[in-house]
């Protein structure tokens, strides 16, 4: 799993995020996934019987290690980094890296640090005021394969976090019926 982690998380961190071409993307199958504003957890769950979350990493990152772009989306603060891989019925579908600013992990949101195998989306979207913005997309090459990725900002009780998601080769986004 550590090789997997190196490859995919590194690729995700090196992604060149771009503003989506909404008009074109909205009409495509990939677009429905990449531009999803509600819960990716729900969307993935609709394509399998069991969605499993494996936590690959959970650590703190200093403000100085964040990019200008990340700081402008989140504010100037150190963050918790949560790295996971999501599998649908045993197939790895999505690799995700989430930056959660320290000030987001307060009051009701303290538990986000301790989610473990509970999907982040499940926790965030059962809150009525959850919303997503700043959606950006990228194509990431891993071992010669072009994979789709997106980054978006999630808000819970007006507190932000930044989610980067890499769709792995077996993900339903690449399948005809996806
Ligand atoms: C997580 C991150 C879950 C990104 C997701 O959906 C996701 C998580 C299930 O960290 O649990 O799209």
Please characterize this protein's 3D structure.
- It is found in: Cytoplasm.
- Its EC number is 4.1.3.40.
- Its main location: cytoplasm.
- Pathway: Cofactor biosynthesis; ubiquinone biosynthesis.
- Removes the pyruvyl group from chorismate, with concomitant aromatization of the ring, to provide 4-hydroxybenzoate (4HB) for the ubiquinone pathway.
- It is a single chain.
- The chain has one domain (2-169): 3-Layer(aba) Sandwich (Chorismate lyase), CATH 3.40.1410.
- By secondary structure, it is of the alpha+beta class.
- The longest helix has 12 residues, at 2-13.
- The chain has helices at 2-13, 22-25, 29-34, 40-45, 68-74, 120-124, and strands at residues 51-61, 79-88, 91-101, 131-142, 145-156, 159-167.
- The radius of gyration is 15 Å and the shape is globular.
- The two termini are 26 Å apart.
- 22% of the residues lie in helices and 37% in strands.
- It has a six-stranded antiparallel beta sheet with strand order 1-2-3-6-5-4.
- 4-hydroxy-3-methoxybenzoate binds next to α4, β2, β3, α6 and β6.
How does the SSE layout of this entry go?
Elements: H1 2-13, H2 22-25, H3 29-34, H4 40-45, E1 51-61, H5 68-74, E2 79-88, E3 91-101, H6 120-124, E4 131-142, E5 145-156, E6 159-167
Antiparallel strand pairs: 1-2, 2-3, 3-6, 4-5, 5-6
The structure holds 4-hydroxy-3-methoxybenzoate.
CATH fold topology: Chorismate lyase
Strand order in space, largest sheet = 1-2-3-6-5-4
Query: What would the average pLDDT be, to the nearest integer?
Result: 95
Largest sheet: 6 strands, antiparallel
Structural category is alpha+beta
Domain module count: 1
Order of helices and strands: HHHHEHEEHEEE
* Percentage of residues in strands: 35-45%
Percent range of helical residues: 10-25%
Secondary structure: number of strands: 6
The CATH superfamily is: Chorismate lyase-like
CATH class: Alpha Beta
Shape: globular
N-to-C span: 26 Å
